[in-house]
Design goal:
Layout: H1 2-10, H2 13-21, H3 25-31, E1 36-37, E2 42-47, E3 51-61, E4 66-76, E5 79-90, E6 93-103
Antiparallel strand pairs: 1-3, 2-3, 3-4, 4-5, 5-6
């Protein structure tokens, strides 16, 4: 399990996803700052020298509430093409923020 944790960090999709969502006003308003991911990621990452793919979920924590960060994407030529979903509960209703973005 530890090796997969290292892969999510070393290859960058977790850090890239956090960079995508942190500046979004709606997300910061919902969770507050700072935002912290849990130490354990659930999912898969695979790849080669020329391309990689990842699909994972990680709990995230903020001062106002907690939620789940769900990420899927592919890496090619040094760029991650990510689809990021932040899922959280607000007043008993599930809320989702969806973002798709390419990151170096």
């Amino acid at each position: 399990m530890l090796s997969s944790q290292v892969m999510f960090r070393a290859l960058g999709p977790l850090d890239q996803a956090l960079q995508i969502i942190i500046p979004i006003r709606r997300w910061c308003k919902a969770f507050g700052k700072p935002i912290t991911p849990a130490p354990f990621v659930t999912g898969k990452i695979s790849g080669s020298d020329t391309s990689s793919s990842a699909r994972f979920s990680v709990p995230i924590f903020g001062p106002k509430r907690n939620g789940d960060l769900q990420v899927s994407g592919s890496w090619r030529r040094g760029i991650w093409d990510l689809s990021v979903h932040v899922v959280y509960d607000e007043n008993g209703e599930e809320q989702t923020i969806r973002i798709t973005q390419k990151m170096k």
